[in-house]
Each structure stands twice: as structure tokens, then as C-alpha cells.
């Protein structure tokens, strides 16, 4: 199945460029050196900051079967600082499985789209688009209805082919849910495949430098005070997370598979000390919130690892997860020094109504 992309932008094409003006410096424990705020003037983004920032939204659309098919080479909102650095970024939300077609699931998606638009894009006066990954479950009318939740933010809907590799068709026993963690549904297990492999195989994400995943069980409590993407860019970080935990849940056999892969491919990790902690102490980057550098996780090296892990059936059988895989990727191909630890209230996010407090590795 060929992946398809749908974009519903009521302006059909939105190109904005505004030079930021010098403004007051906002103090924050986390973002003291990178505050961003400002004012929205119609379709023009105005940004006030301690540094000059230019936001440019690049979108072009081709009319196609009653919707608009965006040029995937020009999707990104670019923020350019006076020091010459620029970056593009998007928010990522996933909705797959049986919940996708229910009013409850679509209402939750609508609420999260609205919250990102209100508390992030309007809160800090940015124009980052939202990319919704689904498994083909959203109809054209559902996507059209969901655009009413966007409050002016551009929303892209991306359908992914979640069909399992052909190699498993003759080995169904490889996909039988292991007794440990057996209660987790197939959609939950598929979400890990999407987060680690499928969304990076999809070409649309290549339009961006960073993605920020916010799950539907995350609540944005109030307006952001600063721009986390800008901090990721200015600090040259590869991953941003609020919590690093030790959790052996549902990952039986994963360290062995990773070590086997490293040995077979003669991989020398860039941060062996951290990788050994990840594999030996079951460290994870808490996965319902995460900011990543697309180029690292879309790289040939990480994607070869992800495809190998997928080929073992571990995502489906054992519920191996993206939380461990992101940490493994950092240890193998980056460094713990390139992980940004975020804290509440700089990121005012709650998981199931519990504030997310920072925990470092």
C-alpha cells in the first residue's frame, strides 16, 4: 500500500515571514537562555525574544481528489536565529487501532491538536505544524472534521502501512504474545514499530530537523513559556526527554538481541558507558513525551538496527518498546551528553493528571 498524505489548510497555502524584535528576557530554570514569546498578527508570526528569530512557514499544495496534497519537500516551519542557525520542526501525534475509528479516540485527538495549537503555537507565538500518523483508519471526512480543532495550526495526516514483514506469515508463532505483558493490545505494540521504524521510513518526516511526540494521554496544563525546539537546536542536542527510568517491563530478550546485532555488525558504540547502563539496568527514555533529531533516528545506522529488531518479532511478541530503543540509539550512535533533560513547569505536561518531574539518567 502506498502511503498517502492529506493536508487540510483552510488557506490552502500559508507563507509567513516575520523578523522578530528585541524584547524582554524571560527567566526560566530551563530556558533562561532561550525564551521565546510574542504576538500573533493575523497570519503573520511575530516573535519577541532576547535574540532575533525569524519564523518562516513553507507549505505548497497540489489539489488532489478533493483534498490538498502537500509537496513533502516543503512542509516545514523554519525558525532562523540571528546567529545564522535555522531549524524546522513539527509535533507528532499517533492514533492507530480500534480507538481510531471511535468518537472517543477522535475526540482525544481533537483535544490534543487544540491544546498544542493553543498552549504552544499561540502560547509562544510559533507556527509549528502537527503531523498525525495513523494506520489508514481516519476517513477523509474525519480528517476534515479534525481540522476544525487546529485553531489555525497546519495539520498533516499521514497514513502508514503497518503490515507486518512477509517473513512472519509462515511463522505465526513468532508473533504470539509472550506471557509476560500479554495484556497489551496489538495497537500498543504497533505504536512502538511506528515510533522506531515506520515513521522514519516515511519520507514526510525528512522535511523536518526535529519532531516532538506528545501522546494522547498527555495533558498540556498551560501555555509553554519557551520554545523547546529552539533549545534543542541551539544546544545541538539529539534527544530531549523529561524522565529517564529503569524499567525491565516487557523487554525480555532485547539486550541479548542488541548485543548480537552489534557483534555481527562490528559496531563500536559512541557512548559505551551509557549503552551498558541501558542494556544492564534497563534504562528508558519515558516515551509519551520525547523530542528527537530526525537525522539521527532516520540515519542508515539506526534504521538498520530498527529493521533488525523488527525482524525478530520482538515489538509484537514481547512488546519491545520505543522507550528502550531511543536510549539504545543514543548510546550506540550518539551520547548521553547530547540528551536534553526537560523539567516541569518549563514543559507544563502531565501524564494521566500527574505532573512530569525531571529524572536524569
How would you summarize the topology of this molecule?
Blueprint: E1 4-8, E2 16-19, E3 21-22, E4 36-41, E5 44-49, E6 53-57, E7 61-64, E8 67-70, E9 77-81, E10 86-95, H1 103-121, E11 130-134, H2 140-146, E12 155-159, H3 186-201, E13 210-214, E14 218-220, H4 228-234, E15 239-241, E16 244-246, H5 254-265, H6 272-281, E17 283-285, E18 289-293, H7 294-297, H8 300-311, H9 314-317, H10 322-333, E19 339-341, E20 349-351, E21 354-355
Parallel strand pairs: 3-5, 10-11, 10-13, 11-12, 15-19
Antiparallel strand pairs: 1-12, 2-6, 4-5, 6-9, 7-8, 9-10, 13-18, 14-20, 15-18, 16-17, 20-21
Helix pairs in contact: 3-8, 3-10, 6-10
Short recap of the structure:
The protein has 361 residues and is an alpha+beta fold. The protein contains ten helices and 21 strands.
Would you give an account of this structure?
With about 350 residues, this protein is of the alpha+beta class. Helices cover about 30% and strands about 25% of the residues. It has ten helices and 21 strands. The strands form five sheets. Strands 1, 2, 6, 9, 10, 11, 12, 13, 15, 18 and 19 form an eleven-stranded mixed beta sheet that branches. A three-stranded mixed beta sheet has the order 3-5-4, with no helix packed on it. It has a three-stranded antiparallel beta sheet with strand order 14-20-21. Helix 3 runs parallel beside helix 10 (about 320-335) and helix 6 (about 270-280) packs antiparallel against helix 10. The chain is globular, with a radius of gyration of 20 Å. It starts with a strand and ends in a 6-residue tail after the last strand. The model is unreliable at about 1-75 (pLDDT under 50).
Amino acid at each position: 500500500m502506498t502511503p498517502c498524505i492529506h493536508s487540510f489548510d483552510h488557506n490552502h497555502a500559508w507563507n509567513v515571514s516575520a523578523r522578530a524584535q528585541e524584547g524582554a528576557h524571560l527567566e526560566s530554570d530551563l530556558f533562561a537562555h532561550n525564551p521565546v514569546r510574542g504576538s500573533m498578527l493575523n497570519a503573520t508570526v511575530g516573535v519577541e525574544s532576547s535574540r532575533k528569530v525569524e519564523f518562516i512557514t513553507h507549505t505548497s499544495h497540489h489539489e488532489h481528489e478533493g483534498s490538498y496534497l502537500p509537496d513533502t519537500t516543503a512542509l516545514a516551519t523554519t525558525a532562523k536565529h540571528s546567529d545564522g542557525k535555522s531549524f524546522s520542526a513539527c509535533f507528532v501525534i499517533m492514533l492507530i487501532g480500534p480507538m481510531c475509528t471511535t468518537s472517543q479516540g477522535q475526540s482525544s485527538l481533537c483535544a490534543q491538536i487544540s491544546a498544542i495549537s493553543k498552549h504552544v503555537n499561540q502560547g509562544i507565538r510559533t507556527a509549528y505544524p502537527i503531523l498525525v500518523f495513523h494506520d489508514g483508519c481516519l476517513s477523509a471526512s474525519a480528517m476534515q472534521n479534525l481540522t476544525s480543532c487546529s485553531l489555525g495550526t497546519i495539520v498533516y495526516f499521514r497514513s502508514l502501512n503497518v503490515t507486518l514483514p512477509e517473513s512472519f506469515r509462515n511463522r505465526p508463532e513468532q508473533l504470539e504474545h509472550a506471557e509476560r505483558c500479554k495484556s497489551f493490545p496489538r495497537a500498543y505494540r504497533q505504536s512502538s514499530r511506528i515510533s522506531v521504524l515506520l515513521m522514519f521510513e516515511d519520507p514526510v518526516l525528512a522535511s523536518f530537523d526535529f519532531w516532538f511526540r506528545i501522546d494522547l494521554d498527555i495533558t498540556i496544563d498551560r501555555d509553554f513559556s519557551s520554545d523547546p525546539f529552539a533549545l534543542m537546536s541551539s544546544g545541538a542536542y539529539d534527544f530531549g526527554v523529561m524522565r529517564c527510568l529503569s524499567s525491565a517491563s516487557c523487554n525480555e530478550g532485547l539486550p541479548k538481541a542488541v548485543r548480537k546485532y552489534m557483534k555481527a555488525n562490528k559496531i563500536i558504540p559512541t557512548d559505551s558507558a551509557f549503552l551498558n547502563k541501558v542494556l544492564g539496568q534497563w534504562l528508558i527514555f519515558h516515551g509519551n513525551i520525547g523530542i528527537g533529531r530526525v537525522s539521527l533516528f532516520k540515519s542508515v545506522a539506526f534504521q538498520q538496527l530498527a529493521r533488525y529488531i523488527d525482524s525478530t518479532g520482538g515489538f509484537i511478541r514481547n512488546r519491545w518498546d520505543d522507550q528502550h530503543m531511543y536510549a539504545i540509539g543514543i548510546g550506540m550512535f550518539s551520547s548521553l551528553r547530547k540528551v536534553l533533560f526537560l523539567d516541569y513547569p518549563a514543559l507544563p505536561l502531565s501524564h494521566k493528571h500527574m505532573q512530569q518531574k525531571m529524572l536524569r539518567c
